[in-house]
Design brief:
11 strands; Glutaredoxin; 4 helices; 167 residues; alpha+beta
């Protein structure tokens, strides 16, 4: 998918979305303390990558809170990361205010490597599209979905089913 919509208006995505079954692309993201994070930091775990436009929006807030709650029912070998182009300081503030402890927020604001490598960088906004990727322990992409309308939530049941197949 090279386009998505925002309230019905077409937006274009930069980069190529990796195919399900392919090796998950690497990325260069920043943690809330400004330390770097790459795919290697999560090796050996099932990694759920949430791509969200901004944590300070209602749909992103709802989505990340939902995955934070769902994390309690998942194996300790499942790591959940929410990537956005929000600044790391804003992400830390939001997590503290929202009580988020089971989802790690990472920033793509500097390099946008995650957005480009996963084909979810919205060209017109320099924000990430809403998408979910699940990376298996062996580093392959087990699940990949871009939400066609950025104001819609992902299919939680579908994502959770994909995770359970890997646990």
């Amino acid at each position: 998918m090279n386009t998505i919509t925002f309230k019905g208006i077409s937006l274009h995505l930069d980069g190529e979305q990796p195919a399900q079954g392919a090796t998950a692309p690497d990325f260069d993201l920043l943690a809330n303390d400004l330390s770097p994070r790459t795919l290697k930091n999560y090796r050996g775990n099932i990694l759920v990558l949430l791509s969200v436009p901004s944590l300070d929006t209602p749909v992103c807030d709802t989505e990340v809170r939902r995955f934070n709650t769902e994390a309690a029912n998942l194996s300790g070998k499942v790591r959940i990361v929410a990537a956005s182009c929000d600044l790391p300081f804003a992400q830390a503030r939001w997590c503290g205010a929202a009580g988020i402890s089971s989802v790690e927020t990472l920033s793509d604001h500097r390099e946008t490597s995650f957005g480009r490598n996963y084909g979810v960088l919205v060209k017109e906004l320099r924000l990430l599209a809403r998408a979910v990727f699940v990376v298996a322990r062996n580093g392959t992409l087990a699940y990949s979905r871009v939400v066609p309308e950025i104001t819609h939530e992902p299919d939680y049941a579908e994502v959770l089913a994909a995770i359970q197949k890997l646990v």
